[in-house]
Design brief:
3 domains; about 40% helix; 3-stranded antiparallel beta sheet; Arc Repressor Mutant, subunit A; about 170 residues; alpha+beta; globular; Rubrerythrin, domain 2; 8 strands
């Protein structure tokens, strides 16, 4: 699947959808939980609804990635099936969908990203993504790296070789 076939969803958009549609909270209650204004919550909620509609109608993959968030629980993403889940078990948690132990600790990933940006790099998300590239070691094809998706999981559209980080 080509990178252009992905829909990028920020963690805060995901959280807005989870609170409103999964936990069935009103926008006022959900906004309080997220520590944002009700109009800001509604904008996030509408944005993710449009993104999900596009993904379903056009058959695009949904990629959940960064954002400026703090979690009250330990969240993980399975690197095998891409399921996002939280677990009370902090040592060696397993995916709630496929039981894999090949997982990413989302809280730690966000903290690492914040630490990189606090070291004086002062890069915006867009500038950082422009600098990070996934390239094909065979033909040299290059594309912007998508945080949360290892380059090795993406195949070159020209020669079908797995990409590597530049």
């Amino acid at each position: 699947m080509a990178l252009s076939d992905n829909i990028s969803v920020q963690y805060e958009e995901y959280e807005a959808l989870r609170l409103a549609d999964y936990e069935n909270l009103s926008h006022v209650e959900a906004a309080k939980r997220m520590n944002v204004s009700r109009p800001t919550f509604t904008r996030m909620y509408e944005k993710i609804r449009r993104k999900l509609a596009e993904a379903f109608v056009e058959g695009k993959a949904i990629v959940i990635e960064g954002g400026d968030v703090d979690f009250d629980k330990q969240w993980y993403r399975c690197k095998d099936c891409h399921n996002i889940f939280h677990s009370k078990k902090e040592t060696n948690p397993e995916c709630t969908f496929c039981q894999s132990h090949n997982i990413e600790h989302i809280n730690a990933s966000i903290q690492n990203w914040r630490n990189r940006n606090r070291r004086g790099q002062n890069l915006t998300n867009q500038e950082e993504m422009k600098q990070e590239q996934c390239i094909c070691p065979s033909c040299g094809y290059s594309t912007s790296h998508i945080p949360g998706i290892p380059c090795k999981e993406i195949q070159c559209p020209q020669c079908e070789v797995h990409l590597v980080r530049k």
